[in-house]
Amino acid sequence: MSKEVKGAIVGALITGFFAVIAACITEGRIFPSSSTTSLTTPAATKVVSDAVENESVVVGDENAFVEETSAPVTDAPPKEINIRDLIPLVGRDEKFWVDAAGEKDNLGKDDYELLVYCGDESRRKDIIYPLDKKYKTLKGRIALSETDNDIDDGVWFEFYEGEKKIGKTKHLKAGERPFDFEISVKGVKDLRIVATGSFFFNDVSVLTNGFYLEE
Prior knowledge:
By secondary structure, the chain is an alpha+beta fold. It folds into 2 domains: 3-54, no CATH class; 80-214, Sandwich (Jelly Rolls). The protein contains 3 helices and 10 strands; from the N terminus they run ααβαβββββββββ. Strands 1, 2, 3, 5, 8 and 10 form a 6-stranded antiparallel β-sheet that branches. It has a 4-stranded antiparallel β-sheet with strand order 4-9-6-7, with no helix packed on it. The longest helix is centred in the first third of the chain and has 25 residues, at 3-27. The N and C termini lie far apart (107 Å).
């Protein structure tokens, strides 16, 4: 065999050897990665599937654990109660609050449940409720009855703890639209509500759907 033929054979063998090595590297048979795992393997696929189902984070490879998660804790909304759910200390509930019986406000709306008769300052009408320092605010909505939409002065509510005035609503008078009010009753043990006015004739009807306490 000539030297030329032998050289050709050796060259072919060397070329074929390196071709086989390259093919093995490409297929991952030589120098496999130890830091990654194919996502197409059955074990890895199960880990991903379980993670999605449990809405958790997968740590590491197919041997990773699934960490349970829970919904974040949120503050509950403030609890409200109608002040009429409390038993008054002084005054009669049915004398202070009267069934509105379809009475309309000065805008012609009749969606009110209650009315309060407000007299002049010489005939102040009041009621006292025990709050026992449990509540933060008192709020409500008041409106002037359409039958009293011609008064020149006004009517309003005042709020007391003992003899100390802790708040009042603005005045309701002719042409005044219904409005909401809110006062702080934080730390108040007994709340006195006074319905009053600045006129000197018959009682004026103030409409409301109740006064509400917020814890």
